[in-house]
Amino acid sequence: MTRIVSRFPLPPMSLGTERHLTVHSYGDPDATPKAYLQGGLHAGELAGPLALHHLIRRLDAGEDEILGHIMIVPIANPIGQSQVMRGTMAGRFAESDGSNFNRGFPDIAQEVAEAVRGGLTGDAAANTVLMREAIGDVLADRAGMAATEIDYLRITLMRLACDADLALDLHCEEEGLVHLYVDTLNWPDASDIARLLDSRVTLLTNPTAAMSFDEAMTAPWRKLEGEGLDSGCLTATVELRGAADVGDALAEEDADRLYRILQSRGVVAGGEEIGAEEIGTDDEAPMRAVPVEGMDRIVAPTPGIISFRVPLGTEVTAGQPIADLIDPTADDPAEGRIELTAACDGLLYARRIQRFAHTGATVAKVASSRPVTATSSHLTD
Ligand SMILES: [Zn+2]
User: What separation in Å is there between the alpha carbon of 171 and the centre of ligand 1?
Assistant: First the structure.
């Protein structure tokens, strides 16, 4: 299968350095549907980049015809990858300004709305074309004004993705089950993706001020919801298990699942062979999807060594001890231990990898169908 490799330079921040984004593309750039996949925006989360490496190999083999356009950015954050702190990659936050790489994407919803209002008609397909043009124009203007390499990186990723029908941003937890974040605007439309990825839980989000990649991509479509528009770009944040699970065997499995998504969405031929049992049917109960307010972040009230009592994937009940937090300096060892408990019934889907918690650290996450947290707390860093 013909693959085109393109390199998009980022503006250098110091003399004698240069970074770029590498993009692998398949199919006619004007063909639809378009799928966009990126990995490693949090640069140390390598499950996505390795899965995309295997997806590229699979697509190169040319088993099935490419019907649409595929764009793959396996390393979406070369800046973060270059940040090495005493031997360890520090790829979640930018050293230069302290920002989380998956926050602070530009909110262009208002500008796009002003550009398209008046031009929208009763023709949803024409409206989608108009929206994509406006989004592309606004982002092109923003790129010209980007003050730093990081701003330019964020805008460039959005420009690459903004005319896609489907955009997947691949991350991983420290320890975690496969799970998704999807804006409520795109649910249950994304339920086939959850099912094909064998996602254990989908966290349904509403807009916050944090502006992760998927929020920023969804914002213009949400702004004009109800004005004759379909959501033109289904964007999801995909968490592919934990950092210690990264390896060829699971990455090949993930690549196979991503390939099935490309087929099911009509980007690659062969989707008609995917049975209803694999992607579900409209009248079937959806995969477990809970409001993101149902994310119970179990936080350490004191510092201590973590000893988990239950493994990932456990269905826990409210009040059940999840872990002990141990202080070996306590005068009385019997008092140097506290239980951390679940606030609600739900699925233990993520755990901290380091077995020490400073005060306030997140030790584990439980997904409950009942709201337990404030709206935006899922986007705490
Ligand atoms: Zn991440």
Answer: 4
**Cα 349 to averaged position of ligand 1 atoms, centre (Å):** 15
Distance 40 CA to ligand 1 centre (A): 8
For ion ligand 1, residues whose CB falls within 5 Å: 42, 45, 171
% of the chain surpassing 70 pLDDT: 94
Q: Which domains does the chain have, with CATH numbers?
A: 3-287 (3.40.630.10), 293-379 (2.40.50.100)
Going by pLDDT thresholds of 50, 70 and 90, the confidence category of residue 91 is: very high
pLDDT in tens, 151-197: 999 999 999 999 999 999 999 999 999 999 999 999 999 999 999 99
Residue 277 has pLDDT above 80, yes or no: no
Radius of gyration, alpha carbons of the chain = 21
Nearest to 237 by CA among 293, 170, 313: 170
For 333-363, write each residue's pLDDT tens digit: 999 999 999 999 999 999 999 999 999 999 9
From ligand 1's centre to the CA of 110, what distance in Å? 27
Separation of CA 365 and ligand 1 centre (Å): 15
**Centre of ligand 1 from the C-alpha of residue 375, in Å:** 19
Contacts of 50 (CB under 8 A, 6+ apart): 39, 246, 247, 248, 251
Ligand 1: centre distance to CA 173 (Å): 7
* CA–centroid distance, residue 158 to ligand 1 (Å): 17
Task: Indicate the Cα dihedral angle 75, 102, 144, 25, nearest 10°.
Answer: 30
% of the chain at pLDDT higher than 90: 84
